Amino acid sequence: MHPIIFLLISFFGCNTSMSNKSTFDSKIEPPSTFITTSKEYQSVPITPNSIILGYVIDGYMPSDKQFKNLTHIAISFLKAANTKGDVEMTSGWENIDEVVASAHRNNVKVLISFGGGGIRVTSRLMGVKTNRQNLINNIIKFMKTHNLDGFDCDWEPSWLDDKAEMESINNAITHHYIKFIKELREAIDQEFGKGSKSFSAAVLNKNSIWYSDKKQIAHFPKNGWWHYLDWVSLMNYDNDLGSKHSTYESVFGESGSVAHWMEFGVPKSKIVTGIPFYARAGWGEEWLFYKDIRNLEAEISDTTDFILHNKNKSGLKEYGFNNKATVAKKVNKMKKMDLPGIMFWQLAGDLPVDSENSLLRVISAELGYKKDGSR
Fold it and tell me: Is the CB of residue 342 less than 8 Å from the CB of residue 275?
């Protein structure tokens, strides 16, 4: 064979091989069939009643007094910038290092929360191994760069007008969630050492999404993904509207969220319950911060969990929330069950801790925290 022909064949053959490899690497993997148990992985146990976790967004800097009544904050959100696994923060977090430093000065741990309800996580990102591994590597790098204490996976189902697209995107959870959770847990342990960084996840009040009035799908699979997590935070809000929003029964009732997830397989030793620091009347912008309600209704009873309000001249509607009595009742039930703790969305919705009507103050007092943050 002529040397030039041999070189041409070798060159194009090599390129063809590389092209095939690229095509193979970018192929979406089949749905996971892997099922794990506690024998596969055991996380470090969490002390009961030890977590008070507040979510913060848009660069919110908690006050020192708020920090004194918290154990953790979750900075929200880190998101995938593209399907290749590059990452970026949502707007407002130019001060992330200042917030982390302030938290650490107050002995509060800082988690980075990934995803959020407005972020679409696709199979092209999570179902392609090279993309998923790139995402995991970038998360580890981000945690190291910003001196973070843990990772909180808030990969949620997405709501879209196109129901077929909605189902396709949300099935990425069903098919690939455990792959991401397992591989990220292994990467965190390898990089930082087991137990050095926390790894948690936020999930829906219950595991069900309606695609129409006749079609309902559960997306989080029963394959043991929770074994790789230190705790699972239940988003016990946005489950209903008006006076039915985030009631005590919807969380702790016989058919409530806690019972649902325990029956699902998540042990109670890993269940952190959620409290809204806001009211909801409808979807979209039909919500109010708790502090706004207290300003609108200065004389409202501590046991009243809804108000009638006409927001932006949209009509008089029922805004349901958790007032002091309901928050105290939820925290006390959590204590009796020896759950790991409480989380809430979001810290900016509360009154200053100095206020006798502050919900964080109620949570802290019910859990036995003193003003200096000790117990």
Answer: yes
